[in-house]
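Write out this protein's structure.
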Amino acid sequence: MRTFVALARTGGFTSAAREVYLSHSAVSHSVKGLEQDVGCRLFDRVGKKVLLTQAGEMLLVHADRILHEMGQARESIDPLNKWGHSRIRIGASSTTCQYILPSVLRRFNEDYPEWAITIKLAFEPLFSDELMFIVSAGHEWAVSGNVIRMQISKQKFVLYNRGSQTFRMIEQFFQRDGIGIMAPWVA
């Protein structure tokens, strides 16, 4: 587009080549490729001069807008090439988000105040997991081959600490099912 606009403005291949820092032949090939791309002639060649055709005049209006938009796009993108003016995406577990990221982001914000910090929370299940009772080979559940529902609340469990998400999920599951955990052992 720059070559096309330069040729339209200068009216000559040599002048346009000088303006866009290309050879005469590179300008000629560029214009020929553009004409093939749009499917029509854009210039009438009159001796060493070139004049825009009607299609060329129409394209010039759009080309000026395109080049102006490209200039604005470059200006808006340019700060992203400087340190501290970009975006970082961090994927983290809920534990990391809760216990580690707040202090890290606070410190980062102090060191790089020009960075805008935006937090988006999303839960993306990666897999399904299954929790199971593990009992000794001599336990009545192992011997019978099944868990007796009424006995669940009388068992002692080794679970994650009470603040963990896993503990809360197990507790909610038992509560929904009407099973109370009497006195679990908590690791």
